[in-house]
Write a structure and sequence with these properties.
Length: 70
């Protein structure tokens, strides 16, 4: 799947991985960090699971591709 985005992103894709917030209390910090990386054009999110959506919050999760030069 990483090759599909190579020409569109214009940078080498360094890796594909999944991350999760350490605990539900850190969901907002987790989201803000992701947002900052997107704004810096270093991260291409594929999906985000918002753990705060439910009555009992769970840790948020992210599937992404890093495509920064460094």
């Amino acid at each position: 799947s990483m090759l599909m985005f190579k020409s569109a992103l214009g940078k080498p894709i360094n890796n594909f991985a999944c991350y999760a917030a350490q605990d539900p209390q850190q969901n907002d910090h987790f989201f803000q960090t992701i947002k900052q990386c997107i704004e810096q054009e270093a991260l291409f999110p594929l999906s985000f699971y918002d753990g705060d959506y439910f009555v009992e919050p769970v840790a948020s999760r992210l599937r992404k591709k890093w495509y920064a030069e460094t």
